[in-house]
Amino acid sequence: MQRKTFLKTLALASAVTAMGGMGAAHAQAQVEVPFYYPVAVGGPITKAIDGFAADFMKEHPNIKVTPIYAGTYQETIVKALTANKSGSAPATSVLLSTDMFTLIDEDAIAPIDQFVKTDADKAWLKGFYPAFMANSQSGGKTWGVPFQRSTVVMYYNKDLFKEAGLDPNKAPQNWKELSDAAQKLTKKDASGKVTQYGIQIPSTGFAYWMLQTLTTPNGVLLANETGTKVTFDHPKVIEALEYWVNLTKQGVHPSGVVEWGTTPKDFFEKKAAIMVTTTGNLTNVRKNAQFDFGVGQIAGNVRKGSPTGGGNFYIFKKAPKEQQEAAFKFIQWITQPERAAQWSMDTGYVAVSPAAYETATLKKYGQEFPQALVARDQLPVSVAEFSTHDNQRVTKVLNDAIQAALNGTKTPAQAMKDAQREADRLLRSYQ
Fold it and tell me: What is the pTM (predicted TM-score) of this model?
C-alpha cells in the first residue's frame, strides 16, 4: 500500500515538474524586442509609449517589447550604433529620418521590404504620406517607417495680433507680410530695450531645419536626393539666411543664437509673439499657452512649403531573426490608423497616414481643434528634411555656419561658402 502511494506521489511530482518545464519553455519562447526610443526624461511621451507597449503585449503575449529611453536623438543613435557594433543590437529604434544614410553606411539596418510579404503588408506600406516616405526610401528600398513625424509651423499669439491691429485669424502668408507683422508686434520699454520680439526662430540643435523653413519657400533644396551633394553656397540659400539675419538686424528677432528648448517658454511668457518650431510642440502649446493662439503654415516667398522632420522606426540587421520579425509586427501594429490618430492627439506630431485622419477620433479632434490639421495640410508642399551621408558631421558644419552668420562673426555669404567647401570635403568619398 505504501509502495503504491509512494509511486503515485512520484508520478504526480514528475507530472508537476514536467508542467513546470513546459511553463519555463513557454516563458523562454517569448521573443524580446529591445526598443531604443529617443527621450531624455520621463513624462507624457514615455507614458504613451509604455502604454502602447503594454497594449501590444496583451494582444501578442509571445512578444515582450522593452522600451529603452536613450536620451536625445543624437544620444540614441550613438547608443544604438554602439550596441550594434558590440553584438547586442536593439531589434528596433526610433531615430531621425535623416539618420537613414548613416545607418545604411554603417550596414546597421535591414530594408523593411524584406518583411513585407502579404497583400495586407504591401497595402500598409503604401498607406503612408509620400512626403514622409521621401526620408524613408533610397536606392529603390524602404529603410524606415514613419512614426513621430512633423513639419515646421508658425505659432502666433492671437491677442497680441489684435493689439497690433493684425488679423488674429490669419498668419502671415509671405516674407513681406512676416517682416511687417514682426515690426508691428515688437515692443520696447521706455529705455528702448525690447520686451517683446515680433518673431523667434531657434538656432540651436536644429538650426539646419529652421534654415530649411526659409530655403524651401525660396525654391531651393539643401541637398540632392542621394545625399552626396549639398548646395549651401547657392544664391537662394544665401538669400534665405540673409532674410533670417536681417530680422535680427531690424530688432524684431532676438540677436545671436536662440535656444531651441527655451523658445516655447518665451512664447508662453509673451517675449515672442510668433515662434517658428515643430508641430511636435502643439500639445505643449495647447496645455501651457494662457492665451488664444493660432497655427499657420510657413510663410512663402517664391512658393509655400516646409521640410518634414522627426523620427522613423528602423529594424537592426544584427538582431536575431525572430526579434526582427517581432519588431516588424510591433511597428505595423503601432502605426495602424487608430493608434497613429491617438499618438497625434497625445503629442502634436502629424499622424503618418491619410487613413488616420479618416478615423472618427481624429475627425472629431480636428473639428474641435483645427490647429491640429495645419501641419498635415502643409504636407503636399513639404520637402524631405536635409540629410546626407556622414550626416552628423555635415549637419554640424551647416549648423555652425548658420550660428556664425546669426552671431555676426561671418556674413551669410561667407558662412555658406566656407560650409560648402567643408561639406564637399566630407562628401567626396560618397560621390
Answer: 0.88
